[in-house]
Design goal:
It holds the Pfam family PadR. InterPro entries: Metal_resp_DNA-bind_regulator, Tscrpt_reg_PadR_N, WH-like_DNA-bd_sf, WH_DNA-bd_sf. This is Transcriptional regulator, PadR family. With about 100 residues, the protein is of the alpha+beta class. It has a single domain, classed as Arc Repressor Mutant, subunit A (Orthogonal Bundle), CATH 1.10.10. It contains 4 helices and 3 strands; from the N terminus they run αβααββα. A 3-stranded antiparallel sheet has the order 1-3-2. Strand 2 and strand 3 form a beta hairpin. Helix 1 crosses helix 4 and helix 2 crosses helix 3. The longest helix has 26 residues. It starts with a helix and ends with a helix.
């Protein structure tokens, strides 16, 4: 899930609730804010993302918008490479094709 979160954040700054909605639109229906925020906190502690407060356009409390750090961009590239390798291997197994 962390790699998917990094990929969504790469698209542009996003706050937690918006992130959960985007993930749902990508096909993760069970993703809730409650499951997103602990992951965002961990990604911040690992210095993969950074959060900045912005005024809410609706006049409500400020929202924390997340963006990738340089380390986050590198980690996302690693995730994409690992996912490509894993999905290729799984496809070979389910299609009965060996290397």
């Amino acid at each position: 899930m962390e790699g998917c979160i990094l990929a969504v954040i790469e698209e542009g700054e996003v706050y937690g609730y918006e992130l959960s909605l985007r993930l749902q639109r990508y096909g993760f229906p069970e993703v809730s804010e409650g499951s997103i925020y602990p992951l965002l906190l961990r990604l911040q502690k690992e210095n993969l993302i950074r959060g900045t407060l912005h005024k809410s356009p609706s006049g409500g409390p400020p929202r924390k918008y997340y963006h990738l750090t340089e380390e986050g961009t590198v980690q996302l590239m690693r995730f994409r490479q690992q996912w490509t390798e894993l999905s290729s291997a799984v496809n070979r197994v389910i299609q009965g094709k060996r290397k």
